[in-house]
Amino acid sequence: MPNRAASRLLLRPYSEAAVVQAARSALAEVGGKVSVGFAFASADYYENLPDFLELIQLHGHVPLLAGCSGSGVIGTNREAEKAAGFSLLLLHLPDTQIHACPLSAAQADSIGSPRECHRITEVRPGEVEAWLAFCDPFGFPVEPWINDWNAAYPGVPMLGGLCSGPEEANEGVFVFHNHEMLPPGSAMLVGIQGGVTLRPLLSQGCRPIGEPLTVTGTNGNLVLALGGKPAYSVLAEAFESLNDREKARAQGNLFAGLASSEYIEEFKQGDFLIRAILGADAHSGAVALGAYPRVGQTLQWQLRDHVTADDDLRMSLLHERMRKPPPFASLVFVCNGRGRDLFGTPNHDAHALSQIIGNHPSSGCFCNGEIGPIGKTNFVHGYSVSMALFV
Length: 391
Prior knowledge:
Strand order of the largest sheet: 1-6-2-3-10-11
Number of domains: 2
Number of helices: 10
Helix content: 25-40%
């Protein structure tokens, strides 16, 4: 039997009958056999979470279930922001080896070498081709852990998100493995090997403005100079290069792009890791970033708005449509700052995926941060959409 998938999106408070029906119908659609399931639920499912997960495993015949909470849940061609409900994806992958790796904050902190990471996960680099990750951002050291993970599994893509809850608070936020909620500050990793390819699609929603320049002066998270000029003046020049309409949209929407690799001859959109501008001082010429830039690194200022975000995602999806074979399933992780707040209309990212790639079983959630690769290195992103396309 080939790879198969089925998804369900139910927008209602917890109901035992509704969960059972969703699990049974998805199981029937996928052909009666399931290799792994992914679920995402709103914060109000917290009180009934053990029952919810057990019902899915029991009635969906799910041997491995992983997922997390979201401030909104996502299905095929649909995004439900701040709504009660859950999203479910069941996959039958007969030729795929699947690794389940729950990880505590203490374990993440203890990873001092690739060998220690392999000992904790019992998975060596040649035994995994992609990771799916669901992390609790309140207590789990996400960014340092990803750096260690990149060293332990070089070139292996990771897709996923940082779970979220109501109003981005840490109440009602959860990550789970099978029918158990993991302790606060945990992560759930699922490794995929053989039988299927996970093609990553990451859209950061920015376009470069001004010129890419070498960082020539730093102090912690402060950029002091770019190409020998004060960083503030370079930022001002980039802003002045915009037309009047772009300047109006740029208010609060300027970011820094740090080159993901210095081995690129001509930098373009998508070659930068986008980080926030926290402040700028015309007197000192310094610009504060939500990152720690390095002297010698290439930086280019970036503009993010709904027009750029829409163009960037559609361009990425059109490029994906040229590739064969098409995906038969997907997991979608969207930043809480996108959706209606950015685009003014609902369902933007999920609708673009279905419109350009075609309808297929899909599931996901709105996140406090998204995980995805730029080149061969995985990062945590913001205001982005990260998609794991199963082909």
